[in-house]
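Continuing the series of single-chain predictions for the mutant panel. This is the parent chain; the variants come on the following pages.
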Amino acid sequence: MEDAGKGPGWAADRGDGMVVLGRVSGVFGVRGWVKLVSETDPPDNILGYVPWYLRGREGWRACRPLEGKAHGKGMIACIEGCDNRDQAAVLVGSEIAVPRGQLPALNPDEFYWSDLEGLRVQTPDGTELGRVSHLFETGANDVLVVIGERERLIPYLWGQVVLRVDLEADLMVVDWDPRF
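Parent structure:
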């Protein structure tokens, strides 16, 4: 599974062809730098995508990251035209996205997390478990959060638990006991 956005991984496609790779989470210093939450794997991959599209109240607007680096547990970046703390503050909360076509191509058995979110999930015998709400990482493997009549946490283990993904049919088949 890839994550561009967790490269084969996270990347939330909002239905408009844009794939969200992270967000602006705060300001850093007085020269217009911003703090980032990156959902790419590794986190600094977000710096390799140019241009970025930031979504604020007015919609998407293109911008160019000029410089960026890891800082503590997060990332910081300088964005063209953002020269002071006040300009940076306006960007806080903005999603950072790229057009889907800018993401690397995947192998047939790899998926971006955004491809999996929303899929119907069922067992091989056709028992419906719900839909994939989102995914998260653990140390061992990624986990699907499936919401149906209740929430289920299902490990994303290709070939063991996840047997088939059919994006055209909006379906994921899992080897999972419906009682769990």
